[in-house]
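Retro notes
What went well: the complex prediction finally ran end to end.
Inputs used:
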Amino acid sequence: MGAGLGPRPMAGIAQPTREEAMQQARLHVATHPLIAAQLTLLRAAGTEPPRFRTLLGELTTLLGYEALADLALAEQPIATPLEPMIGARVGEEIAIVPIMRAGLAMVDPLLRLLPSARVWHLGLYRDETTLQPVPYYNRTMRSGQAGRVLLVDPMLATGGSAVSAVGLVKEIGAVRITYIGLVAAPYGVMRLVEAHPDVDIYVAALDRELDERGYICPGLGDAGDRVFHTGE
Ligand code: PRP
Ligand code: URA
């Protein structure tokens, strides 16, 4: 991943500023100090895959907690050791849609919060020459089962993968879509908002820009490679 080597599809392309992206009402950038501290450890080049996966999981739990603050509840009657009471349970059908590969590392933390959620794996990778998303797996999404969708992927770079994924879940009738990611670039945020203005976007950080290869700067590098110990 040497600087200046290989295709440079973002060369010469104008990018919005952080300030412009921050004005989008649907963008929620975390402000919790624990998220800032964990994300710093995640970004550091010396963080090896086992620790990287653990940190990504912890950050997903914290972001999930924020993104699901408006979750609908249904009444759940129970008996405590002292008396009956009306408690609460999650009152919405939820599907978690991880964009492979890196989104896979965000599934288990969310399933611990939402044990009854469905998981619809979605295979997309971006062509490094064109930065266009290339679909390769989508066999489990079902029309009629789509209530609220949590689309999860650590990186919102050009936004191509997220825009395509939201289009796919809308095709099967998802009524509400929430994107949960770790690091976003202003360019990707603006593209997602323009293509799908009804999607709520929760991220741990909004970074400065994309480099000429389409990597988020300062970013954290290639998320899939860092989760799965692939690449150079
Ligand atoms: C990464 C990341 C996103 C995508 C973001 O995946 O996990 O899915 O890039 O880039 P975009 O916003 O420009 O579309 P990648 O394509 O590297 O797939 P991989 O993890 O399977 O290698
Ligand atoms: N995908 C990644 O994994 N990292 C980036 O910075 C951009 C896209």
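What we learned: The chain has one domain: 18-72+89-228.
What to try next: split runs per interface for comparison.
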